[in-house]
Amino acid sequence: MDELFPERVAWRPGPVVTGHVVRLLEGYSREVRIKQPVLVAVLGTAAVVRVVLLLLASVLRAGAGGGARRRWKELRKGPEFLVTPLRLRDGSGVLCEMEIHGHLPQSALEPADHVQVTVRSQQAVGLAPRVERIVNLTTGQLLTPRTPTLWSHLGPALLLQAAIGLLLIGAFVAWMVLR
């Protein structure tokens, strides 16, 4: 009979919702959106370093250590992260749904655990509020799910190249102005 007439689920805007875990639904993956202007700026400044290194390598007749480069299409497609819908019943008996973005330990949340959840509404319309942090009052654990970001997707090597490229461009512009 429960499947024929499911209980309505509310989206509480928060910021803090306290209640008991009813159920963790099956997780699915979602992609982090990458803004193209930021990606173009990072790749452009990193290309300056690559060109300088290639020029130095050709002058010194040494092989340029090219390494494995990721293609534009691969960088443009953002990293995927796990989305797990969480249902809990708040103090007034309302069934609330929210989304946990990122991974949590398997035994971090069990049905009937008393939790205090800090949520934030998402930019995209039609999505349940996003969980920022969970305090499991039953076990005393503080849980903070982490999702990948643009910066972790690009990686430290590419970001370092971009920073050096930005410094080289700044030095060149300063040299042209002072000349």
Basic shape? elongated
Uncertain residue segments: none
Structural class: alpha+beta
H/E order of the elements? Answer: EEHHEEEEEHH
Alpha-carbon distance between the two ends: 82 Å
β-sheet strand percentage? 25-35%
The number of strands is 7
Percentage of residues assigned to helices:
25-40%
Number of helices: 4
Largest sheet: 7 strands, antiparallel
Mean pLDDT: 82
Q: What's the gyration radius in Å?
A: 24 Å
Summed up:
Helices cover 32% and strands 27% of the residues. It is α+β, with helices and mostly antiparallel strands and 179 residues long.
General description of the model:
The protein is α+β, with helices and mostly antiparallel strands and 179 residues long. It is 32% helix and 27% strand. It has helices spanning 36-60, 72-76, 150-154, 156-178, and strands spanning 16-24, 28-31, 80-90, 95-101, 114-120, 130-136, 141-143. It starts with 15 loop residues before the first strand and ends with a helix. The model has no long low-confidence stretch (mean pLDDT 82).
Question: What brief labels describe this structure?
Answer:
single chain; 179 residues; alpha+beta; 7-stranded antiparallel β-sheet; 7 strands; 27% strand; elongated
Outline the fold blueprint.
Blueprint: E1 16-24, E2 28-31, H1 36-60, H2 72-76, E3 80-90, E4 95-101, E5 114-120, E6 130-136, E7 141-143, H3 150-154, H4 156-178
Antiparallel strand pairs: 1-3, 1-5, 2-3, 3-4, 5-6, 6-7
